[in-house]
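User: I'm curious whether this sequence folds into something compact or stays loose and floppy. Could you predict its structure so I can see for myself?
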Amino acid sequence: MLTPEGKVDIRGADLHLGIGSDELVKSSTHLRVGIDLNSGELFNIGYTSDWLEIMEWNAVHNSIKFTAAIQGAMFTDTPRTDKKFSLSF
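Assistant: Here's the prediction. I'll summarize afterward.
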């Protein structure tokens, strides 16, 4: 919004994410994650275009456990990996 003094006053912000096989972000299928205007951090929950909370945004205690569990060992091809300690499912 533009104030009477000619300054920009930001009242809200959010990140739009495409889902599935969408090549572009579509208003009918996107996810939205709010942005805290004071800190610039993303909110913890994302919402579908139907206002459902289907996405948890987690960058604090993230790990590769889930990805390794569904895809198998991820770093066995790197030179610093001891293959006997790699996760494999």
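Summary: The longest strand covers residues 42-48. The beta strands are 14-17, 31-35, 42-48, 55-56.
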